[in-house]
Amino acid sequence: MTHVPSMSRRQFLNATAATATAAAAGLSVSAAPKPEKAQIALTLDLEMSRHYPRRGLTEWDYQKGNLDKATKAYSLKAARVAHDMGARIHFFCVGRVLEQPDVGWLKEIIQMGHPVGNHTYDHVNVLATNPKQTQFRFQRAPWLLRGRTAAEVIEQNIATTNVAMKTRLGISPNGFRTPGGFYNGLKGRPDLHAMLKRQGFKWVSSVYPPHLSGQPKQEPGPEVYNSIVAAQQKAQPFRYPSGLVEIPMSPISDVTAFRAKFWKLDYFLKGVRLAVEWAIQERKGVRLPGPSLVPGGRGSRMRDRQDGLRSCEPEQGPRRNRGPRQDRRPRGLRSMACSRFSFTR
Fold this sequence. Notes:
Layout: H1 9-24, E1 39-46, H2 69-84, E2 89-93, H3 104-111, E3 116-118, H4 136-140, H5 150-169, E4 175-182, H6 190-198, E5 203-207, H7 222-232, E6 238-239, E7 245-246, H8 254-260, H9 265-282, E8 336-341
Parallel strand pairs: 1-2, 1-8, 2-3, 4-5, 5-7
Antiparallel strand pairs: 6-7
């Protein structure tokens, strides 16, 4: 197992703060002061989750996008905190969120410069082969399927979210996160690659590498934390043969830690800290095979450009209302820790 040597709190804060500052300023990583900076991605899925705020509550399985007041308040507060610290959170929106009468809180998040990606309309399973298995909602209300195949249900769910985001938020996402993460991501699924590209996506977040998580209600031991850190090596960006770019999720997810294993907050924060320390210590450039995402770009190093990895750009309103300019991106991806925070209260 991988052992990560401890770094002091001062070293940790200095390294992460420098990374966030460079990213917020739109500085190229290659042009940033040495040593090279690790890239730390914070993501948060806008959805509800079973067993929150109390155990046994499963109605959210059928209403994933019906965000309650506390969830929206938390998401907005997280966005403000990150913004004030010079960082960004990449949100992923379930389309049904946009059926709510007030989406001002989400517009404020976008105005702060936080990107928002597509997370399907009903939180459907993109690997499902049976239409009813795509989502709990369709098991309870099968008439919503209207005789469509699983593939048709999935694509329409994604396409509808694109329309909803453009209509309610004025943005067009080009980044997509699958509900749930898969050990192999979308490998061996050229049909899904073609569908996502058809819907305008250039990158996807679908990989969640396997790792130990210990026994429920027990403090995780060194073997669990070592496994989490080792899994970061399998959570690095890569390009599929189709050209679609994969930005994996990094363990451990909050759903696994809190909902499945009943972890205390301190256990979870330790796992996150170790993953971040690993990314900072590695700082390796990640090269992807194939042409650059940027037309006319040199080399094969992936660039987080507006037409590459950033998920959205407001299409309406003056420049001053769109938040910080974000079209100058790091030229390469260093070792990355991409924490998946699907907030559930």
